[in-house]
Amino acid sequence: xxxxxWKIVPVLSVLAVATIVTPYARAGCGLYTPVQKDANNQPQIxxxxxxxxxxxxxxxxxxxxxxxxVGTWKERLISEGSKGVPDGAEVDASYAQWHSDGTELxxxxxxxxxxxxxCVGVYVKTGARTYELNHFGVSYDPTGQTLVxxxxxxxxxxxxxxxxxxxxxxxxxxxxxxxxxxxxLQGKFVGTRVTMETGFQKVE
Length: 204
Known about the structure:
Layout: E1 71-79, E2 90-98, E3 103-108, E4 118-127, E5 130-140, E6 147-159, E7 165-175, E8 181-193
Antiparallel strand pairs: 1-2, 1-8, 2-3, 3-4, 4-5, 5-6, 6-7, 7-8
């Protein structure tokens, strides 16, 4: 399948469909431009045993209250160590909801709806104020007519003690329908909670 090239702008000049002369992959709920996957650059994280999203606090933290990840968040994914994408480039900016039943929903601000801009996921609590997300989107080519395949986004997230910010890291793998990895991105994850006091926010 021939995929159209997309470009990504360094984070300070805001991501756009066509920008500077050097082409980079564009993310969101998936990727279009194939990037060579570096097997030595994959995160070596052991998957926790699946459980509900209910708090599972260590004995030493028992009785202490901690903030919940449940709510609506403004989130950004920033490239770091991705082959073919400069460090600091914003590869997605989205609004997401984390639900009390361990499910998650995200709407990407950097994907046109016809290409697949809504992703869904599940998460588990892995420790005090820490969570792991396993998240999928369905990607189409830029015309919205040809299915590319599933995109898997994983996030390892820590919520701040005040409950209003998150940080961590992410990986994105875009597959074709045969399970071949077409592109891989990784980097850092940051988020801010959306509250009744939240006003205007730029999408990107």
